[in-house]
Amino acid sequence: MTSMSRKCLFAVAVLLFACGAWATDSECNDVEGNMIANCGWESNCWGGWHPGGPVVDIGRDGFSHSGDYYGIIHPHSGLDYIGQDYLPTDVNQAYTLSFWIRSDSPIEQLQVIWSSQDTDQTMLNLQNVDAPDWTQIVVPDMVAWQDAMFVYWYFGNSVSGIAIDDVVFTPQ
Description:
This protein is mainly beta. Helix content is 11%, strand content 46%. The N and C termini lie far apart (55 Å).
């Protein structure tokens, strides 16, 4: 690599870091005790998340709920998921999950699965969710039965994308 190539590569890296540093913080980062990593996608990536397929993306177009970024699940047939694993929970403690969604057409299917890796519990199962503007979904009473739990969202919408932002998971 030539000296000029190294200088250009370094300049690009500095520029990318600076652009990320200008991002506005999401309101979910200010919630004390929030266990969701990268809760508003302000890292401009899916870090901390487990996307279930190639239909996920990051949005930064001025339409986030708060901050600069949000997660996007592109239109597709069937269900696809995103999730976070190994949330540090206390056995028999109840938790509340909240998140904001929007979509240009009704969301055909939205599920929240609470899991211990061996056992799954469906906490939310909605169909035809109308959310043309940012709409908050709150799922209370998610009682942990192990000390490390998983939460997954299953989305299905063949007509338009689904935006998700400001995910919060806290003890009740």
